[in-house]
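Write out the 3D structure for:
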Amino acid sequence: MARTKEFDPEAALQAALELFWQRGYEATSMSDLVDHLGIGRASIYATFGSKHELYLKALERYDRAGLPPIMRELSRPGPALPAVRAVVRRYATEAADDRLRLNGCLVTNTASELAPHDPAAARRVERNWDQLETVLHSALLRAQAQGELPADRDPLALARMLLVLLQGLRVVGKASGDPARVRDAAEQALALLD
């Protein structure tokens, strides 16, 4: 007779996500995961696979939790440009907040730590960025159609610039204790939308 799991896999996955987000992939050992999750190594392997597979599942969970609220915010009916500005300013505020900035963004962290040499991680990062770029592009197209964005602006190029800005805000915010640096950068980028 098969044994039943004596732990909640969803809670364990969330705990793994938090540990990876705080420490990074390489700095998190299987022993760290065993200690942090409070379950045995064999149970981790049986439920999630390897450390790498667990990391990718945690990254997927992070992505599923983070993108939908941004997509909803940028897809609401009505003026689109205020929503774009609000998203950029929220990223800047979070990047400057001492309680939030030190972990950065798990997608951005993965891009710098794993994506250059890990094709599976790179695909997940690219998928996240493609989705964010698409929702930004859609909002900017709507803004242009509604007369909020000048006709001579390229919504796709602006969406790509904002994507890079948002990721850069996370990196600089994580490494810098100067909140003005990220706030000034965000406001300068938003001025391009006028």
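The longest helix spans residues 119-145.
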